[in-house]
Amino acid sequence: MQIKELGHAVLYVRSLETSRHFYRDVLGFNEISADPRGFAAFSSGRTHHELLLIEVGATAAPPPKGRRTGLYHLGFKVGTTDDELRDALRTIEAEGVRVVGTSDHGVTHSLYILDPDDNELELYIDVQPEVWRDDPSAVMAPIRPLAL
Q1: Which tens digit of pLDDT belongs to each residue from 8-17?
Q2: Which of 40, 92, 103, 137 is deepest in the core (most CB within 10 A)?
Q3: Which of these CATH numbers, 2.160.10.10, 3.30.160.390, 3.10.180.10, 3.30.930.10, describes 73-148?
């Protein structure tokens, strides 16, 4: 067996309506289906769905903080230029989205944000795809401060 690609992610959310607004209206995912039982599916058009949200209610516990096992963050590519990343930053700032970090990874420039349920998301651009294709070790280059 060989995995061909990462197909989709599924997130539990407290409020489906709040999260639908965030992923659809703030981040710009295309909502392809919503179910009154508490589900919504989103796609960028690459495949049938890349993100599925499942409502679990307002009393659900948030993701644990600190060092732990499990998911750290999901990364979403927003383009290939710093102008596109700056546009993304303006959009999320206008919506009051919390930015928890920024990084220049060499091969990517990244913003780290929290969704309404405190799941960490990375919004990034590929700076020079040919660099990491020619030299995969470039992905592990030291992280530098991001200058946007």
Answers
A1: 999 999 999 9
A2: 40
A3: 3.10.180.10
